[in-house]
Amino acid sequence: MSSLITEDEISHEIELVWLEETTDLDYVRQSLDRLPTRRGKPPYHRDGRMIGYALLGPKAKASRSSGTFRRRVFWLLPHDRDTQPEGLYATGAPAEAVDPRTLAAGTKGYKTERSEGGPPSTAMQELGITLPL
């Protein structure tokens, strides 16, 4: 889950690679996967589709026990809001979801009103701040 990802676990990221344009996505799911390499497109074994992944720099160390690297993978499931806007996540978002606009290499990202599918808060309305919905 994204809430369990810490900045030190992703400190060796040097780039995020997006396989799809994220402008129209309210959220993406993120997870730390154990992968055999620092770079390159990882295999994908979930339902749904991979949206992107992180590349690690040369100082990233493999696990001593498994020889694998922990890399972030970004993905969506078939029942997520992008394909079922009135479905399970019409409002709210999965625990591991973050707004892709808040992501960068080495930055874990966070939820926003947009990713939660809700209207702007009263404070945002009073300040005249709007998020694209």
What does this structure look like?
This protein is mainly beta and 133 residues long. The protein has one domain. 8% of the residues lie in helices and 24% in strands. The chain has helices at 113-116, 122-127; strands at residues 13-18, 28-35, 49-56, 69-76, 97-98. Strands 1-3-4-2-5 form a five-stranded antiparallel β-sheet, with no helix packed on it. The longest helix has 6 residues, at 122-127. It starts with 12 loop residues before the first strand and ends in a 6-residue tail after the last helix. The model has no long low-confidence stretch (mean pLDDT 89).
Mean pLDDT: 89
Tell me the strand percentage band. Answer: 15-25%
Strand order of the largest sheet: 1-3-4-2-5
Helix content: under 10%
Integer count of domains: 1
Radius of gyration: 16 Å
Main sheet, how many strands, which sense, barrel?
5 strands, antiparallel
Structural class, please? Answer: mainly beta
Oligomer: single chain
Q: What is the terminal separation in angstroms?
A: 24 Å
> Helix and strand succession?
EEEEEHH
Pfam family, one: DUF6009
Protein name: Transcription factor
InterPro entries: DUF6009
Keywords: Plasmid
